[in-house]
Amino acid sequence: MVPRVGVAVSRGAARQPEFVRTYDALIHIFFGAHYLQSWFDPWEPRWYTGFFTISYPPLSHQLIAVLSVVVGLKAAFALVQLFAIALLVVGVYRVSSLLFPGRAAGYASLAAVVSSAIIETVHVFGQLPTTLSMALLLNAIPWAWAYVRFGRRVDLLRAMAFTAATTGAHHITTIFGTVFSWCRSC
């Protein structure tokens, strides 16, 4: 239920007139268009004198490219952003449930939906890679915790897969998020 609430509250991310005015959304759509036109070519000649697209982690842009085949680039951006918001809310619930009882974890995930930091990241800055990578990292942490606690190899593989996907979405989240998730005194 909470992911549905998150999507409902953040539905503005899916309205075209809203997100195209954000700081970064059109840049991420541009990267998605690059992957749509030439998936394996790292050089993008259409901007300035050209640049390497490998300077930015590709996961969110590649998801835009894949979905844009069906719904178009702008709608694909909105759908990936909505997916990231729903996954973020689930991740907040999963991490919070490691620290607090179930009801408090539910409140934490609801608070994430209306958090000014999340709303600003989505509606002002249009930071799809940041939202997606944070959502993936928050879902990796409980798997890592389960591996440390129970020693099941499948939990380690899940944690590694989500952490790798986090890096594929945004490198800064992996660098800082992983350090702070293991630091008890931070």
Overview of the structural elements:
By secondary structure, the protein is mainly α. It has one domain. Helices cover 74% and strands 2% of the residues. It has helices spanning 2-9, 16-19, 25-37, 59-71, 73-99, 102-113, 116-124, 128-150, 153-169, 171-182; strands at residues 43-44, 51-52. The chain has a two-stranded antiparallel ribbon with strand order 1-2. Helix 4 packs across helix 5 (73-99) and helix 5 (73-99) packs antiparallel against helix 6 (102-113). 37% of the residues are buried.
Index terms:
single chain; mainly alpha
Brief sketch in words of this structure:
This protein is an all-alpha fold and 186 residues long.
Tally of helical runs: 10
Biggest beta sheet summary: 2 strands, antiparallel
Q: Residue-averaged pLDDT, rounded? A: 86
Radius of gyration: 17 Å
Strand arrangement across the biggest beta sheet: 1-2
Number of DSSP E strands: 2
The count of domains is 1
Order of helices and strands: HHHEEHHHHHHH
* Spatial shape: globular
Structural class: mainly alpha
| Share of helical residues | over 70%
Low-confidence regions: none
Distance between the termini: 32 Å
Q: Which percent range describes the beta-strand content? A: under 5%
